[in-house]
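Researcher: Please translate sequence to structure tokens.
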Amino acid sequence: MTVLPERDNTVAHDYDNPGYRAWCAGHAAALDEFLTVDAAVVGALPDPWTLAGLRAAIAMARTRFPDRAAVLAEESRMSIGRLGRFVGEVFVRRFDGCWCNVLDTAPAETEVWPMIRCRGYLAGISPRCEVELAIVEGRSGGPAATRRGIVAELFVSVAAKHLAWTTADRLSNPTAACG
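Model: Translation complete:
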């Protein structure tokens, strides 16, 4: 079993939403299940919270879910959700990020839409959307393939912005991620 450190990387005001509170309460268990059941090969990496971990997770998912219909199927919902949590958590851990519930970008009638905010990167990151795109990238009916892959390209972009933020005078460059 993978032991995850106790962390609270969520925005406090988002706890007003009971559905989001429940989502947060199940976060550690969902990550553990992803790393031990869904993608044990990722969990076996010396440090899964890296670009290599992201690539291994997406490769596993591309094998498991052959097309967009498989990604969107009801029976895939939980495993795709755990994959999204993993992808998001990599960004949280690597780039001073936090989870938040951003309903203004969510599909209609959605009460919980977890997203990531990272220091130095102005846009929010929707792990669920990134995962869905990455799995079908370059396949018939999916988005065109990028050179490194959609999630890897996002990782590199966020890494560059985060590095710029961490090397700048943070007081004069107060790009807020959380809070």
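Researcher: Any highlights?
Model: Residues 1-8 have pLDDT under 50 and may be disordered.
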